[in-house]
């Protein structure tokens, strides 16, 4: 009887040990972690410390890639990473958690000069110590920019991308530049521009639609156009065509057939060249440096043809001496006029 009692006691003790050592189910651990990252009920439309000073949002933009710059459409296509940081004390208990952006207050920053955006990262924010909120998003988009092309193709441009919290005035949200984040990747996909510098600045802009002043972050891209293509493809061939038109000044005016033929050939060659290079030039409502050069070169070639016609007429009127004198003067006047054109257009 005593032995049976001892065995029962032993079995009961072992059962208690097994139950005590039984692992906690995985779903219970996950549930505990989920409870730790549960966002408290708060008004997402109300900023932190709504009755206090403006909420400071640190903004950084990094240019991941630059794929194209369209002079005609006045646009820039690129890939940019935007980093926003602010402090929300109401989230202090969520350190180490990631929460959906829609669950918390955020400055609702808008890229005001962008077209359709393609975000590639989840709409989530990371919570740090003391309610520090970090939100990172990467956008691939086309941005409307203004290009002043009067110095084309020797122009330098500054392109800007603007970030604004449209719904909040500067009394509610202010921006600060994240210097360590703002920058660019060394290798870019753009082939006809050299990006010399990128920078971020903060200023205030008046928003007509919302009738208030708002803080604005401006990401500036300074770039120089690579001009070698236009020099070799347009400017140099055009110089050769102009020089070809001067050959008529060394042909005896009495041989008006070859003289007129060469002048007409130079003019037709110029016209054909201009048609062939039309797609290389931006169609604008004002003249660029290259337009002025092409226009001046065209006038000089046409004047050389008129000079050849004039000397041929003088020879037919038995005034060969005057025709020869005009040719001798033209041998110096036309090259000098061309050098003056180059100086006024490219060096002025």
Terminal-residue CA separation = 120 Å
Written as H for each helix and E for each strand, in order along the chain, the element string is HHEEEEEEEEEEEEHHHH
* Biggest sheet architecture: 8 strands, mixed
Write down the Rg. 37 Å
Which CATH-level-2 architecture of the largest domain? Distorted Sandwich
Number of helices: 6
CATH topology title of the largest domain: Acetylcholine Binding Protein, Chain: A
Shape: rod-shaped
- The parts where pLDDT drops under 50 for at least 5 residues are 1-5, 9-34
Task: Write the CATH homologous superfamily of the largest domain.
Answer: Neurotransmitter-gated ion-channel ligand-binding domain
Counted up, domains total 2
Fraction of residues in H or I helices: 25-40%
The assigned structural class equals alpha+beta
CATH level 1 class label of the largest domain: Mainly Beta
Q: Taking all residues together, what is the mean pLDDT?
A: 87
- Strand fraction equals 25-35%
Q: What is this structure's SSE topology?
A:
Blueprint: H1 2-21, H2 26-36, E1 55-70, E2 75-87, E3 98-100, E4 109-111, E5 118-119, E6 124-127, E7 132-144, E8 156-165, E9 173-177, E10 183-184, E11 193-207, E12 212-225, H3 228-245, H4 256-276, H5 289-316, H6 320-347
Parallel strand pairs: 1-9, 1-10
Antiparallel strand pairs: 1-2, 2-7, 3-6, 4-8, 5-7, 6-7, 8-12, 11-12
Helix pairs in contact: 3-4, 3-5, 4-5, 5-6
Q: Could you characterize the architecture of this molecule?
A:
By secondary structure, the chain is an alpha+beta fold. It has two domains: 55-226, Acetylcholine Binding Protein, Chain: A, CATH 2.70.170.10; 229-347, Neurotransmitter-gated ion-channel transmembrane domain (Methane Monooxygenase Hydroxylase, Chain G, domain 1, Up-down Bundle). The protein is built from six helices and twelve strands. The chain has helices at 2-21, 26-36, 228-245, 256-276, 289-316, 320-347, and strands spanning 55-70, 75-87, 98-100, 109-111, 118-119, 124-127, 132-144, 156-165, 173-177, 183-184, 193-207, 212-225. Strands 1, 2, 3, 5, 6, 7, 9 and 10 form an eight-stranded mixed β-sheet that branches. The protein has a four-stranded antiparallel β-sheet with strand order 4-8-12-11, with no helix packed on it. A hairpin with a 4-residue loop joins strand 11 (193-207) and strand 12. Helix 3 (228-245) packs antiparallel against helix 4 (256-276), helix 3 (228-245) packs parallel to helix 5 (289-316) and helix 4 packs antiparallel against helix 5 (289-316). The longest helix is centred in the last third of the chain and has 28 residues, at 289-316. The model is unreliable at 1-5 and 9-34 (pLDDT under 50).
């Amino acid at each position: 009887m005593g032995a049976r009692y001892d065995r029962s006691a032993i079995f009961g003790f072992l059962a208690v040990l097994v139950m005590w050592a039984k692992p906690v189910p995985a779903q219970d651990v996950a549930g505990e972690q989920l409870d730790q990252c549960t966002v408290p009920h708060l008004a997402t439309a109300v900023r932190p410390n709504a009755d206090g000073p403006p909420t400071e949002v640190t903004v950084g933009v990094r240019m991941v890639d630059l794929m194209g710059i369209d002079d005609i459409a006045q646009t820039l296509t690129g890939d940019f990473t935007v980093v926003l940081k602010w402090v929300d004390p109401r989230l202090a208990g969520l350190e180490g958690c990631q929460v959906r952006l829609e669950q918390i207050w955020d400055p609702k920053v808008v890229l005001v000069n962008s077209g359709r955006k393609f975000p590639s990262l989840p709409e989530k924010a990371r919570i740090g110590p003391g309610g520090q909120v970090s939100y990172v998003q990467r956008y691939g988009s086309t941005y409307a920019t203004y290009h002043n092309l009067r110095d084309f193709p020797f122009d330098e441009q500054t392109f800007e991308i603007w970030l604004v919290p449209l719904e909040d005035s500067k009394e509610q949200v202010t921006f600060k530049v994240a210097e360590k984040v703002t920058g660019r990747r060394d290798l870019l996909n753009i082939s006809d521009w050299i990006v010399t510098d990128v920078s971020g600045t903060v200023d205030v802009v008046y928003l007509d639609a919302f009738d208030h002043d708002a803080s604005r972050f401006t990401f500036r891209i300074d770039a120089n156009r690579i001009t070698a293509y236009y020099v070799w493809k347009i400017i140099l061939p055009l110089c050769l065509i102009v020089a070809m038109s001067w050959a008529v000044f060394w042909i005896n005016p009495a041989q008006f057939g070859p003289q007129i033929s060469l002048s007409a050939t130079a003019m037709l060659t110029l016209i054909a060249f201009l048609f062939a290079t039309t797609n290389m030039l931006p169609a604008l409502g004002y003249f660029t440096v290259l337009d002025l050069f092409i226009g001046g070169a065209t006038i000089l070639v046409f004047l050389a043809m008129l000079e050849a016609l004039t000397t041929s007429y003088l020879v037919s009127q038995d005034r060969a001496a005057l025709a020869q004198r005009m040719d001798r003067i033209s041998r110096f006047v036309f090259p000098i006029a061309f050098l003056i054109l180059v100086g006024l257009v490219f060096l002025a």
